[in-house]
Amino acid sequence: MAIRTAPAATEATAPPTAVPRRARRWPARVVLARTVIGLLLAGYAVVSLYPFLWMVSAAFKTQQEVIAGGHLVPRDPTLSTLVDTWNRLHFFDYFVNSLKVTGATTIGVVVIYSAASYAFAALHFPGRRALYRLFVALLFVPGVVTLLPVVLLENRLAILGTHLGLVLPFVNGTAPFAVLLLTNAFRAVPSELRDSARVDGAGELRIFTRVYLPLARPALVTIALLTAIPTWNEYLLTRVSLNDPATYTLPIALQALKSSQVVQYNSLMAGALIVVIPVIILFLAAQRYFVNGLTGAIKG
């Protein structure tokens, strides 16, 4: 009986050697276009940042060094300009006034227009679309057009020259953009979540506060920032409305530094730096929410 021998095991085939990928080469026109765009953006960044850097530099210089010019970095940096400006500006008093106006305006905008936007996004009532379109159309109305009517109305209401007379127009002026952004953010919330909450016995107020508001947090932070920063820096209506120095906000107080015949540029830049520092800190602290809020609003 012939014994069959098992066939010899074939040698394991070696894995194919990986072919090195060629370096991706961009067409010359793409490289040229990107280079030009990069140079233009770099130039725009320099033009935009230079005034701010000059302001920071001048705040640490003496008056003579600012007038002499010729260099951006202070040769002998000094804090005496900031200290002197702090004392002359009475920063804390005006800071409290600005904080009161900005805080009240921001809270009013977030509370009022988040509720209104929830109604536009989730509820059904007669005239909803027409009213929403009216809010959006107000975006195209310049604020300066309503300045005189606002002043005359506040004079009749006896609130002209008070902080309340600033808060009400600021809250009203933010309405179009706040409603537009928050309505889109609330529309992005799945309707199934609202239906599930209703099945669990939740009312509209609970659905609004427990479901919609947490999910729209980036949009709320964005609206808060876009309200707080312009309100903090507002000059026109504040200058027209306020007459009592005790009620002045920081932008109006800066004007006191220009009252002398010879403008102290270092003191003026130091005051501007003091005013702008809280805004920069606020924006950097909430930058992540700000970007996410704008992205969600655009997608919505």
From TrEMBL:
Its annotated compartments are: Cell membrane
Q: Which domain of life does the protein's organism represent?
A: Bacteria
- Its topology with respect to the membrane? Multi-pass membrane protein
The entry's keywords = Cell membrane, Membrane, Transmembrane, Transmembrane helix, Transport
Domain named ABC transmembrane type-1: residues: 95-286
Principal subcellular localisation of the protein: membrane
Keyword Cell membrane appears in the UniProt entry: yes
Span-the-membrane segments of this chain are: 31-53, 101-123, 130-152, 164-186, 207-229, 267-286
Q: Which Pfam families match?
A: BPD_transp_1 (PF00528)
User: Cell membrane among the record's keywords?
Assistant: yes
Residues of the region (Disordered) are 1-20
Which protein family is named in the record?
Answer: Belongs to the binding-protein-dependent transport system permease family.
Question: Which PANTHER family has this protein been placed in?
Answer: ABC TRANSPORTER PERMEASE PROTEIN MG189-RELATED-RELATED, SN-GLYCEROL-3-PHOSPHATE TRANSPORT SYSTEM PERMEASE PROTEIN UGPE
What protein name applies here? Sugar ABC transporter permease
Q: Which organism is it from?
A: Plantactinospora endophytica
